[in-house]
Amino acid sequence: MSSIVIRKLDPGVKERLRIRAARHGRSMEAEARRILQTALDVSETRTRNLYERIRERFEPLGGVDLELPPREAARKPPRFE
To answer: Between 20 and 30 A from 70 (CA), which of 11, 26, 30, 79?
Structure first.
């Protein structure tokens, strides 16, 4: 097993870790290991981008054909004198 040291940890973060560890009946070290493991497991399963996830969710519902209005000519920019 490897070890790491986390320097410059905000005291508030350390306190929240201590409370969370106590709530789960673990040491702070065990709780930190659990948080890291969970975060890394989740991020590796999320390889699809937002577009792919939205499309996967809504594609079974079918598409919608939208009628787009014709574009108008661009207006002339204002002149500052």
So the answer is: 79
H/E element, 15: helix 11-23
Cα separations (Å) of 13 from 8, 10, 17, 43, 62?
A: 11, 5, 6, 22, 46
Percentage of the residues of the chain whose pLDDT score is greater than 70: 93
The tokens for 19 are: 């409370």
The answer for residues whose C-beta is within 8 angstroms of residue 20's C-beta and 6 or more apart is 31
Single-letter amino acid, residue 51: Y
CB atoms within 10 A of CB 17: 16
Listed in sequence order, the residues at least 6 apart from 24 whose beta carbon sits closer than 8 Å to its beta carbon are 31, 34
